[in-house]
Amino acid sequence: MDVKSMVEGYRDELLERLGTLVSINSVEGEPQEDAPFGPEPKRALVTALGMLEKDGFKTVNLDNYIGYGEMGEGDDIIGIVGHLDVVPAFKEDGWNTDPFEMVEKDGTLYGRGVSDDKGAVVASMIAMKVVRDMGIPVKKRIRLIMGTNEETGSKCLKHYVEKEGSVTLGFTPDGDFPGVHGEKGMVGAVYRSKRTGIREIKGGTAKNVVCRNCTILVDRCTFSKKKLEDYFNNNNLEFEIIEEENGTRVNLQGVAAHASMPELGVNAISYLLMGLKEAGFQDPFVDFYASHFGLTTDGEKLGCKCSDEYGALTLNNGVIAMEDGVIEGSVDIRFPVTLSSRKVVNMMKDRLEDEDGVVEIKHTAEPLFFAIDSPLVTSLLEAYQEVTGDMETQPMTMGGGTYAKGIDNTIAFGCAFPGKDYHIHDANEYVDIAELLKQAEIYVAAIIKLLNV
Ligand SMILES: [Zn+2]
């Protein structure tokens, strides 16, 4: 029997298992004894390990942080690293169905996690079963590692590496086909005002999202209302200007986007502050923002604009707030895969402080980069090409970070097919059943390739 038919033979089991896992609302919760990320991520892990145990694989639970199922023997470990936790989902966010009840419509599955990443985990389970059924010699250990804290810090994978070390070769099915051979590095920073007449400012929900909504309260008659309205209207922005007892409030709506692609969003903080400046509002903090960020998302004004053959640096202003008269905001910089954080920070060093404000570097993370002709990248690419026949799409680099950054010798591979948007982290997350089966088939091919590297 060919691999495709063997995978197809597990179709019902794949759907049943995915339905079971989707029904567990494994969003991070309050830590409890023996449940470091709350009871539901733990339940998802114990449930998934139970499935692998039922299959007859050796299973290990590492303190309810992360666990794995394993087959084969030898010193080398092929790791498939997926995750069972999910981001929150609420019906009122625009879901057409209950996000925690998997629903099938015309061959498409809907539910939180059907794609990211429970679907990929279940497809990997089926791939392991098929490899075993094939009866080929397995002289390495094939290990399906399942974490429970990917979405909120990957502390699960850190725990794994502390206890078990890295893997010999591996992939995380939590990115894109036909493989992500580079992930940008990161610099996280905050900026602070030194002097300002602004009374209130608040905007954004997360550092890694382009600010969608910003509100500010300033003294009356400090800017031209007409000029501000013109500025917003010229930029097609939705806004409100409200006279309040203690000043004039301006609310502005932007467009959210992921921090790794800030150019796709419309930053409400930036447009609000630059609009006020255009309208004649004079303030040291606004001057600081204008000279260090303005409307740019490429780091130019902070002195760190740069790129390599794989992409350019991006900069996102995610959240802003004011406390005790000081304004503080977040900066999320993703820098090209062939650079180092030292180099990027050095580029900014003369721009970090002036009399109006200061930028403080909080943390840095180095990029991940495998040469496009490295054995890991080429093996996975070949597996993808053999199953799909798609010889056009090439391995890519990206601005987001995956598990691959947290464990050696690993890149993201799958689960998203080229050009598809599965509404990951959004309402109505979905995956086609045919794609899940195709994923499993590709993972079988990938495991076989990696057995032979
Ligand atoms: Zn994920």
What's the level 1 CATH class of the largest domain?
Answer: Alpha Beta
- What overall form do the CA principal axes indicate? elongated
- Total beta strands: 25
Question: Per CATH, what is the topology of the largest domain?
Answer: Aminopeptidase
For the record, the count of structural domains works out to 2
Which architecture of the largest domain per CATH?
Answer: 3-Layer(aba) Sandwich
Whole-angstrom Rg: 24 Å
Weakly predicted, low-confidence segments: none
The CATH homologous superfamily name of the largest domain equals Zn peptidases
Beta-strand share of residues: 25-35%
**So how many helices?**
11
Order of strands in the sheet with most strands? 1-2-6-3-7-23
Folded structure, characterized:
The chain is of the alpha+beta class and 453 residues long. The chain folds into two domains: 3-182 and 368-451, 3-Layer(aba) Sandwich (Aminopeptidase); 185-365, Alpha-Beta Plaits, CATH 3.30.70. It has helices at residues 3-8, 11-22, 39-54, 118-134, 155-164, 225-234, 268-278, 284-292, 341-348, 375-388, 433-451, and strands at residues 58-62, 66-72, 77-83, 103-105, 108-110, 141-147, 169-172, 175-176, 180-183, 185-193, 200-203, 213-218, 238-244, 247-253, 307-308, 311-312, 314-316, 320-323, 326-335, 357-365, 368-369, 396-398, 410-412, 415-416, 430-432. The strands form seven sheets. It has a six-stranded mixed sheet, with helices on both faces. Strands 10, 17, 18, 19 and 20 form a five-stranded antiparallel sheet that branches. The longest helix has 19 residues, at 433-451. The two termini are 25 Å apart. The chain binds zinc ion.
